[in-house]
Design goal:
Blueprint: E1 4-5, E2 10-15, E3 23-27, E4 34-38, E5 44-48, E6 62-64, E7 67-69, E8 76-78, E9 97-100, E10 103-107
């Protein structure tokens, strides 16, 4: 996805319709890739595009409910928190999302310590 800079560390990354339902798009930044996900009910989430287990690309995983399954070893990661679902342990950094109509704004500041 392309990134258009905005004020105070928020960037425009596109619109909801740019992301397929149950899919993801990748925002490429110098600091690392961020996966922006869309659930079946049009909720939008953003996580570092790196599974806490072996670094698999979460953007290529399968979205189901409010989780994504890593394509490498099927770890389930909560889209709400970035935390791996038990019995697995670990966390993918989560990034705040703001919606204004159909436009998606992404904060460049992770909301956790795992960034």
């Amino acid at each position: 996805m392309s990134v258009a800079k905005s004020q105070d560390q928020w960037v425009v990354v596109g619109t909801i319709s740019d992301i397929p339902k149950l899919g993801a798009r990748v925002v490429r930044l110098e600091a690392g890739d961020i996966a922006v996900f869309r659930t079946a009910d049009d909720k939008i989430f953003a996580l570092r595009d790196q599974c806490p287990h072996k670094g698999g690309p979460l953007s290529q995983g399968i979205v189901h409910g409010d989780r994504v399954a890593c394509p490498l070893h099927d770890w389930k990661i909560s889209l709400n928190s970035g935390i791996a679902v038990a019995p697995d342990e670990g966390c993918a950094a989560r990034f705040p999302i703001r919606l204004e109509g159909e436009t998606i704004y992404l904060s460049l500041q992770s909301s956790d310590v795992a960034a």
